[in-house]
Design a protein that fits this description.
By secondary structure, this protein is of the alpha/beta class. It has 12 helices and 14 strands. Strands 6-7-8-3-9-10 form a 6-stranded mixed beta sheet, sandwiched between helices. Strands 2-1-4-5 form a 4-stranded antiparallel beta sheet. The chain has a 4-stranded antiparallel beta sheet with strand order 12-13-11-14, with helices on one face. The C terminus is likely disordered.
Length: about 325
Amino acid sequence: MTPQSAIEARDLRKQFGEVNALDGLQLDVPAGMVFGLLGPNGAGKTTLVRILATLLEPTSGEARVLGHDVVREPLAVRRQIGLAGQFAAVDGELTGRENLEMIGRLNRLSGAETRARADELLKRFELTEAADRRAAVYSGGMRRRLDLAAGLIGRAPIVLLDEPTTGLDPRSRQELWGIVAELARDGVTVLLTTQYLEEADRLASGIAVVDHGRIVAEGTASELKAMVGGSVLTVRLADPDRIAEAAEAVAGLAVGEEPHVNPGEREIRLTVSDPSVSSEAIRRFDARHLSVVSVELQQPSLDDVFLTLTGRPAEEPADTPDSTHTPDTEEAVA
C-alpha cells in the first residue's frame, strides 16, 4: 500500500456460486479525495463496498483500508469508516436524535460527546426541527440524510457511499451532493459508487469505470472523456420504426465503433472525428426521406466513455445471471 492510499485492492475476487461478482479488481484510492466508482447494476460496486466495510470476505485477493487488512483486522477497519448504503438503515421507531445517539454509543462515544455530536450533525444535515420526530415519518431525503449523519457520527476519516442518491427526488439529490462536497472540503476520503453519470462528473476528482467485476478504465472525468476522441453526434428521429435504417445510413461515419441505437428514445449516437460529418449525416437522411427531429454535436460525456468501453450505457441494467434470485446471487449482481 502506498503511503497516501486510503483504500487499496489487489487482485480482489468474490464468487457467489457461478457468478464472479469481482474478478481480479485492482484499485487505489488516494487519501482526502472523492473517488467515484461508475458502473451499472451488476458491475460489482456494492460487493466491493461490502468487502471494504468487512460485511463480506473476499474469495481471494487483498483489500486494505488505511493500511488495515479487511480480513485480518476487521475491527481496526470498522473504526476508520462510515457507511451509507443504497437504502437508509435507520430505525423508524426511534426519533432522528435517538438514532444518532444510539450509533454514537455503539461507536463508544461518551454520553456527553454523543449528545453534542448528534446535535452538531442534526444541524449540519438540516434535521434539527425534525430531530424529535420518529424517523418513520421522515421523507425519503430526510431518512437518507439521517443515515449519512449516522455514518459520520464517529468522525471516520473514510466514508463509503453506495449509490446514496438512488431513488431520491432531484432536490434531495442536490442536497446530498452538497454534503459530499462538504466532506471533501473537510479532508474526508469518500468512495462513492454510482450509476449516475452527472453525479460522478460533478463530485469525483477521480473515477474508475467498473464492468463485470473489473476496473476497465480510470482517471479524471476529463481524462476519461479524452479516451473517446472526437465529438459525439446525436440524432433523434421522428419515426421509431425506421431507426435501424437510419443507423445503417450513418454507420460509415462513426469512428471506431458502430452507432449506438436507443429505440425507446428514437436516438442514434456516434463518435465522429470531424464536426462537418453532421451535414453529411443530414444529407444521407434526406436521401432516404428520413424525418429528423433534432441533431446535436457535443463533446464526449461519461456516458460516451462507458459506451465506448462496455458497449452499453452506465444506467442500463447489466446482463448478469440473476434470474435465480438467490440471496448470494442478488448480492453478487448488486
